[in-house]
Each structure stands twice: as structure tokens, then as C-alpha cells.
Amino acid sequence: MKRQRFILATLLVALASVVAACTPSELTVQKEKEQQGKAVLAIVENQPVPDLGGWSFEREIVRQTYIARNRNIATYTYMITLDGRIVEICASVGYPIPYSTQLTNPEQVYVGAAISQAEPNGLYPPLNAEATLVQCTNKDGTVSPTYFEPRVFALPYRIKSDIQLTRLDEKSSFSVTTSK
User: Fold this and answer.
1) What is the CA radius of gyration of the chain?
2) Contacting residues for 76 by C-beta, under 8 A, at least 6 apart
3) Using CA atoms, how far apart are residues 172 and 133, in angstroms rounded to an integer?
4) pTM beyond 0.85, yes or no
5) Domain chopping of the chain, boundaries
6) 40-67 per-position pLDDT tens digit
7) Cα–Cα distances in angstroms (integers) from residue 158 to residues 64, 90, 104, 121, 123, in the given order
8) What 3-state class would DSSP assign to 39?
9) Per-residue buried b or exposed e for 63-86, using 16+ beta carbons within 10 Å of the residue's own CB
């Protein structure tokens, strides 16, 4: 019995020694942080962040696109088939909206955790989505939000397509009017 306790105690000490050797000490962690800090500083010194003079061309493009997305701009919506053919879905208004876009913040607030913020248009777009709402225009000027699963794209101009979808019934069962 004494011998078994001695062997067990020896094994526990050996195990504790192995675990202690495997975990980095505070000194090692601090040294690694210092090395990383020096590396980042060297990159910033040798390849500094460019001074754009207080104006960014790319930011301006995104800003103007947000403004345009909030207007009733005419677009044409298309999809590409697996064999590469372009299908015209409809004349549309604005750009397609990912179907899982939400009006409220779907994230939960946790202390110390980052939460989602609304886009300038007040919506919370998903990180990824396959389905899309396309705002197809009707002959009477109203808009019929139309649901599509395949990847779609909308352009502010019409292009030549291999296939053009045609409606069998010109009357839409659902349409919205816009105030602007």
C-alpha cells in the first residue's frame, strides 16, 4: 500500500513537471509580446500608412453608392446560369437586398463583446446570404419585391442577355410604393 502511494505521488510530481514545462512562463509570454511589438513598429516605420491628405477616393465611391442606393435609381437585374449564360430577370429599382437583412440588430449584447452596428441605411445586412430580394418594376410604376435564390447582380444600365424572363401575368400580387 505504501509502495503504491509512493508510485502515485512520484507519477503526480512527474506529471506536474511535464505540464509546467509545457506551459509558457509569464517571462516567455512578455518576451513574445515585445518581439511582436518591435516587428509591428519596424513595418510601420519602413512601410508607413499613407497620408491620403484627408480625402479617400475609395471612401468617396462607397459614400456616393450608399446615397444612390437610397434613391429610386433604375437598374436591371440579371443572374448567371451554371453554364455561364446571362438571364435577365427584370427591370428593377435600386440594388438587390440580401434576403436575410434585418431591421433590428440580431446580435445579443454581452459585456466586453463587440456587437453589430447598423449600416447608414439603418439595416443590418448578413455576413453572407444566398437569397436576394430584387425590386422588380411593374408597368404601372409600382415595385414588386421579388425573391431569388441564385446569385444575382443588378446594373444601372441594361446589357445583352442570353435569356429574358417574361411574365405570364402583368398584374403583381404584391407591390410597394415609394415616397421618394
Assistant:
1) 29
2) 88, 90, 91, 92, 154, 155, 157, 158, 159
3) 15
4) no
5) 2-46, 73-164
6) 888 888 888 888 888 888 788 778 877 7
7) 21, 10, 34, 26, 28
8) helix
9) eeeeeeeeeeeebbbbbeeeeeee
